[in-house]
Amino acid sequence: xxxxxxxxxxxxxxxxxxxxxxxxxxxxxxxxxxxxxxxxxxxxxxxxxxxxxxxxxxxxxxxxxxxxxxxxxxxxxxxxxxxxxxxxxxxxxxxxxxxxxxxxxxxxxxxxxxxxxxxxxxxxxxxxxxxxxxxxxxxxxxxxxxxxxxxxxxxxxxxxxxxxxxxxxxxxxxxxxxxxxxxxxxxxxxxxxxxxxxxxxxxxxxxxxxxxxxxxxxxxxxxxxxxxxxxxxxxxxxxxxxxxxxxxxxxxxxxxxxxxxxxxxxxxxxxxxxxxxxxxxxxxxxxxxxxxxxxxxxxxxxxxxxxxxxxxxxxxxxxxxxxxxxxxxxxxxxxxxxxxxxxxxxxxxxxxxxxxxxxxxxxxx
Length: 365
Description:
- The chain is α+β, with helices and mostly antiparallel strands and about 375 residues long.
- It is built from eleven helices and 15 strands.
- Strand 14 (about 325) and strand 15 form a beta hairpin.
- Helix 4 packs antiparallel against helix 10 (about 310-320) and helix 5 crosses helix 8 (about 255-260).
- The chain starts with a strand and ends in a 14-residue tail after the last helix.
């Protein structure tokens, strides 16, 4: 497939490497970059991408390191050779072998993900916090905290993709239109329920202001931090109470958006008929400062949430004072035993295997 860049230069695409709701992603022949070609390249998308591309020189001057970790739209693409229609854009590719953050957070038995130590995982979280903070400084909002768009390489290098869906205020306001259930802040979900709507753009029009803000980003980020430090378990999810498994009626399946909207979580004992999985860490397994940070950022009001910058500092402090068990887990010195080893032992018994412990390995700083 042959397309044109903004100056009319030919851009040839090779193999397709991915596909999603909005478009497909291809390698760019003769380049280390990749291209996203939209299924429905609307004028609104064209305008947004062109504005983001025009901002690249300024961002390179101000935030060059930040752009190294973003799939930022850098090169609008058009039909070739006459440039009659916008089709997509070129961007930086993530390091080879990068996987979604969700896979990194799960048990080490997940064979499709790189094996990272707890020290590396916390550094990954710190890097995501730092990058989010840098985005907020220039007026960019992530909004959609879909873990599939937060990539981690085998060395712990992070990349955020689907950046064209972010909200920003460069040359006018551009609102996000999608976000994954379970990562949308409760105040947004409550507004939508009260108005009887389920479209973020419509809510922005009614409210007359952006729906997604740094405070709503702080919620989605906190969910990922909790998951990474707790075997990938969502803070508003749980398991059916074992005492009810023999009952005539099994409780209804969990709806993450409903639970977030209503503040229902087994970790604070507000989700009826559901309990914290027996292999998971409880809030009391974390040091007090992390426990309070989760309580504020997940279950508190928007102005109580920690900012990405605050999370970065808190995680750095935790990483510095935590002790390491023989299996490479980090946990607070106040704990009498490693809660991660305890959880993996319980999960191993449930799965009928000998052990889920990962072998220690050299970690990055």
